[in-house]
Design a protein that fits this description.
Rossmann fold, OB fold (Dihydrolipoamide Acetyltransferase, E2P), 2 domains, 6-stranded mixed sheet, 5-stranded antiparallel sheet, 9 helices, elongated, binds adenosine-5'-triphosphate, AAA+_ATPase, ABC-type quaternary amine transporter, ATP hydrolysis activity, Transp-assoc_OB_typ1, ABC-type quaternary ammonium compound transporting activity
Length: 383
Amino acid sequence: MNSLLRVSLDTYLDSFHLSLNFSAAEGKTTVLLGESGAGKSTVLRLLAGLQHPQQGHISLDSVTYFDNEQKIVVPPQERPFGYVFQDYILFPHLTVFENVAFGLRAQHLPSRLIRARVSEALDRVHLVGYDMRKPAQLSGGQQQRVAIARALALQPQLLLLDEPLSALDVQTRREVRQELQHILAELHITTIMVTHQYLEALLFGHSILVLDDGHIIQQGDQRDLLEYPRSSYVAELIGVNFFRGRIVRYEADGTCVIALQNSEYQPFEIFAALSEQGQEATPDIGEEAYVVVNPRSVTLYQSPPDASARNLFPGTITQVLRLRSGGVQSRDGYVRVSIALDGLGSKFPPLTAEITEVSATRLRLQQQRIYAAFKATEASAYT
Ligand SMILES: Nc1ncnc2c1ncn2[C@@H]1O[C@H](COP(=O)(O)OP(=O)(O)OP(=O)(O)O)[C@@H](O)[C@H]1O
């Protein structure tokens, strides 16, 4: 069965322009990742049929639900899509059973069938035996699972999850994240999940679409995102330094030299090693290229070092932050230093270095002039 979701949307909401195409694989989770206002919820609303695009096409499993040229507009209640809203509000006065049965009652199904469907849905979200509880007697994670069961009871072919973890506190979020991963893995239902948390995108997304200002700026799997960010937005989420420029030459040892665009005075050149990114051929001179540098690969000096590092940039420290654990990697004992590099305009984010407390103490960091260096071999370039 070819159960591919195909989506093409082009529409204006006042001055906001949403324009994108994507397809989502059967039984997998496709994540829409983007910051607030990127257009993520709008995409879900357009898929669900709560709004219609000016132009576009939405089909699943060879059935078309929207196509402006063919004048097909299937109303929301006739789309086999389950929508779990951001705040998944449950009816507080109704039991879990009645909350899950709500959409089925609206379809006037016989009560025997309703009971069977509700039991099955509660089973799929591991909430057997909770039928008679009221939402107030459930944890945040359990309430969220009831909301998913409510969508599943309608036997959807597509599940739309809008920030499913956002209503939970940080501690609960961690536990529920795992639970939801298990549930989705067992469901094998084509799912579109919206989030602004990159960690969730990495955990849930078989495929991740990065949305910015109504457009997809990157599409790929976890590895693509982590190793080859293509926007400063993704690079910032991952916590790496990011440069975009054009290849201007290759050195005799193969080092790739990339000149940044729009720097205040040209040339601002970065020396980098071409990553192995499955490139069939060495990229041509003039091609657009991206460079990432891990903040821990950046070394700081109070005066120009004797050794001639090819990437050596003077700048001014703009921020010093002592890191604590709790992130993706252990950061205890590290200090994050932001440096505005000379010659790069204010449009460029500062270079970030992560150095040990010991080095920070030795350098007596404050708002001061500093030299930042990183090896060409620590700068990964890709096109
Ligand atoms: N009905 C509408 N009319 C006009 N503008 C709209 C409408 N709906 C959304 N927008 C605009 O579209 C843009 C995208 O909104 P959307 O809610 O889809 O973003 P989002 O990525 O889901 O953000 P969030 O994470 O904050 O929910 C915003 O600039 C918003 O103001």
